Amino acid sequence: MNVSVNLENDVDLAQHKIVAKNVQVYYGEKHAIKDVNINIQPCSVTAFIGPSGCGKSTFLRTLNRMNDTIDICRVEGNISIDGENIYDPRVDPVQLRAKVGMVFQKPNPFPKSIYENVAYGPRIHGLTRTKAELDEVVSASLQKAGLWNEVKDRLDEGGTGLSGGQQQRLCIARAIAVSPEVILMDEPCSALDPIATAKVEELIDELRSNYTIVIVTHSMQQAARVSQRTAFFHLGNLVEEGATQDIFTNPQDKRTQDYITGRFG
Amino acid sequence: MTDVAISPTKSIYNPDARTRRRNAAEMRFRLYGLSAVVVGLVALVILLWSILASGLGSFSQAFITIDVPLTASVLDKSGTRDVEELKKVSTVGYGNVLRVALMEQLARDKVDTADVSEKEIFDLLSKEAPATLRNMVLADPSLVGQTIKFKTYANGRVDGYFKGRVTLESAKLDSNITPGQLLLAERMQDAGILTSGFNWDFFFGPDASDLRPEAAGLGIAFIGSAYMMLIVLVLAVPIGVAASIYLEEFAPKNKFTDLIEVNISNLAAVPSIVFGILGLAVFINFMGMPQSASLVGGLVLTLMTLPTIIIATRAALRAVPPSIRDAALGVGASKMQSIFHHVLPLAAPGILTGTIIGLAQALGETAPLLLIGMVSFVRSFPGAPPEGFLDPAAALPVQVYNWTQRGDPAFVERASGAIIVLLIFLVVMNLVAIVLRRRFERRW
Amino acid sequence: MSEHTVSSYDEELRALAGRVAEMGGLAETLVNDAVTALLSQDLEKAHKIILQDARLDELQQEIEAKFIRIVALRQPMGQDLREIMAAGRIANDLERVGDLAKNIAKRVIAIDGDFNSKKAAFGVEHMAELALNQLKAVLDAYTSHDAAAAQVVRERDDEVDAIYTSLFRELLTYMMEDPRKITQCAHLLFCAKNIERIGDHATNIAENVYFMVTGNQLLEARRKIDETGLADLENA
């Protein structure tokens, strides 16, 4: 936690896409996230690692207010994106989620065609006016997601008929289609085989130049491979945050050290 | 460690005693299950057999066809063919015409009527026959003066004789029929006056009084049931689905919604007759709706079906994977959008099944309808909707109940026939449900 | 440090460190023996050293295999990664130390008998003692994970360098005085250089130990004092 405080002193605040200050999350009586402070840099990949139940997914979900759907969940503190507090009463979570897209652990394409999957977001947000424009957005999104060549001849087929890795990239294309600025990924590769994982990781690396990406992962190797910065969560605390290289070679906190070297009891 | 693995202490070729016991237990359990299924199947077969055996007869009917000269001097003394004038001749008058025509027909066909009185011969015709003939003439006055081929039901006992329900022995003890009449009927059959045929009137005709089982039909009950199903479908499905969506997706989880939930579950278990009392008290006594109307029946059945539909719909909604909701919310869909665009289509097969089960339950329900007067004897067909909803009507299960109460064994046959119709109705509904389900599920 | 969740990983790490320690001990012995052989003109011992160096190479290869195996199978991180890296590098250094000892032993055979400059020999002996102490100290620092001790070793390398510089000058003087001793002195000079290099390897190991323990590189560039070049120029 000291680390992030230091960072605030070192780096100009304007450079941060997301700034979380003293964030507390409660599930009923349970204090799930304890006083987390973190700054997330734009156009980079930030990985959240930590043992199961450490709060990394919970914290990720506070970034686009997905926790709102859980009745007993309560968020305190301040999370701002581009300097705007996303928990301000004026903020409509629907609009926020168009700006902060999300990709989930299990590939969850809608049981509709590939085209419809990608077109759904732009349609409900009214991003396109004509069919041609929508076609354009769909193909661009699929191209960015590296899926275009694999599906361009079968856009009318069901999205659930694709392989796991393709489904996950379809979900990424669906997230991209609404032109978000931040993409949150909750263990996006946990259900994929190594080849599909590699493709998604390659995609994440490409997307980095245009989007701010926050990824939760159980695989430390994955965090090491795709992220520029890594944050280690433990028991609801943000234990340590720093450049990925430093976290994996020379972590400052004993808990981080124990976790990344496989010594957790 | 590896040494142990190399020399097996126990061969897996010979199962030990414990394994054998376990396998035997498993075998026994499978036998229990199989026998349970067999018992169920046997019961079903017996049920179907008994119903089909006693009910199929109601689909065919003995008819008597005679040439009836509609003499103008008898039926239309004024000669104007005016309907009001024609109405002056009662069914007794038409009865006489029929009796004469029947005797002439028998004579023409040289049927031996020696040991049967003329009254007994006339009793071979259904008591419904004169009224039918009168209605024909009233509907088409131009028939007067012609000789028409008139096909009418044979008496229920005669019909029963050809179906084996009535025998010469039983006829000896029966005040309504004599063995002589039955033998005459046989001779009439040989002469081609008496024929058997498919009985369309059983499906489309109205109910008939105790003395005329051969004329009793299901038509009104059919329409009544159809009207009620329509009302249930139109009212219960939207209300039930809307309530489920609200409770499942929008309602806050607190004591009050818990209470509602418990009550819905309890309502599903409330005996149906209680809903009948409710309908009687609220719809008829308090709101002054007419008795025996299919509207009241439909409303009562709607109340009864709602819990079933709500429970099934909520289960279907809950069964939609949360990942789909997440996906919709994740791309910025509002809660409404995520429910109507994604959750509801996925839950549709389940909702449909619940609805059909609820409807089938409502279709077979008797008790509440008895209380709101749908058991009464209705001879006239209800009108077309929506006014027809207020006309008195019957319902299929009530008709079954009704017929089983009557003395004449011919009505028992009719009741079984009605049960077959009811079962076919249910099977068709289930088939529709299955087909719709398949179609919706393909979208997965 | 607590145990790994996977205990066989701990065993592998311990085995790796054990091999490095074994190598260290062997390298120390080789250097010690080589210097003794040099000073006592013990040809038999010199031959033995040349043979023993093969064992050191073997150990180094074994450590490298273990190193690759652990990296491939365990994907080490943090402290583990640093320890494994350090073990690999230290093994390399120790293997070089062994080579240098072997080189000295070879020169014992080359000098063969006509070694009579006691004074120069004392210089070499003193220098070898210092270098050996360095080696011992740094290996102790490795086994005890003592970053401070490793830092001390690195600082002390200057002393070895200083002795080497003076020895260099001395031998140069001998050679100028008596050209017949040039061969012998040249060999001695190379031996001295070898010993100085052993000191340098000890320094390398110290740096690796320091990184292994702290996770940081020793940042300030070590002042490498090699005035032999300057002496060379002066005397040319």
Task: Please characterize this protein's 3D structure.
The complex is a heterotrimer of chains A (265), B (444) and C (236). The radius of gyration of chain A is 18 Å and the shape is globular. Chain A has eleven helices and ten strands. With 265 residues, chain A is α/β, with parallel strands linked by helices. Chain A has a single domain, classed as Rossmann fold. Chain B is mainly α and 444 residues long. Helix content of chain B is 66%, strand content 5%. A three-stranded antiparallel β-sheet of chain B has the order 2-1-3. The longest helix of chain B is centred in the N-terminal third of the chain and has 39 residues, at 17-55. By secondary structure, chain C is mainly α. The chains are: A alpha/beta (265), B mainly alpha (444), C mainly alpha (236).
**Percent range for helical residues of chain B?**
55-70%
Weakly predicted, low-confidence segments of chain A: 1-12
- Give helix and strand order of chain B, one letter per element, not per position: HHEHHHHHEHHHEHHHHHHHHHH
Largest sheet properties of chain A:
6 strands, mixed
- Assigned CATH class of the largest domain in chain B: Mainly Alpha
Shape assignment of chain B: extended
Just name the CATH architecture of chain A.
3-Layer(aba) Sandwich
The CATH class label of chain A is: Alpha Beta
The CATH topology of the largest domain in chain B comes to MetI-like fold
Q: Give the CATH topology of chain A.
A: Rossmann fold
List keywords for this structure.
heterotrimer, A: 265 residues, Rossmann fold, four-stranded antiparallel beta sheet, 11 helices, disordered N terminus, C: mainly alpha, Methane Monooxygenase Hydroxylase, Chain G, domain 1, 7 helices, disordered C terminus
Secondary-structure map:
The complex is a heterotrimer of chains A (265), B (444) and C (236).
Chain A: H1 2-10, E1 18-27, E2 30-40, E3 45-49, H2 56-62, E4 73-81, E5 84-85, H3 93-99, E6 100-103, H4 114-125, H5 131-144, H6 148-151, H7 164-177, E7 182-186, H8 194-207, E8 212-216, H9 220-226, E9 229-234, E10 237-243, H10 244-249, H11 254-260
Parallel strand pairs in A: 3-8, 3-9, 6-7, 7-8
Antiparallel strand pairs in A: 1-2, 1-4, 4-5, 9-10
Helix pairs in contact in A: 4-5, 4-7, 5-7, 7-8
Chain B: H1 2-6, H2 17-55, E1 60-69, H3 72-75, H4 83-86, H5 91-108, H6 118-122, H7 129-139, E2 147-153, H8 156-163, H9 168-172, H10 179-191, E3 194-198, H11 200-204, H12 219-250, H13 255-269, H14 272-286, H15 294-319, H16 322-330, H17 335-363, H18 367-371, H19 396-405, H20 409-441
Helix pairs in contact in B: 2-20, 5-7, 12-15, 12-17, 12-19, 13-15, 14-15, 15-17, 16-17, 17-20, 19-20
Chain C: H1 7-40, H2 43-74, H3 78-111, H4 118-144, H5 147-177, H6 182-214, H7 228-235
Helix pairs in contact in C: 1-2, 1-3, 1-4, 2-3, 3-6, 4-5, 4-6, 5-6
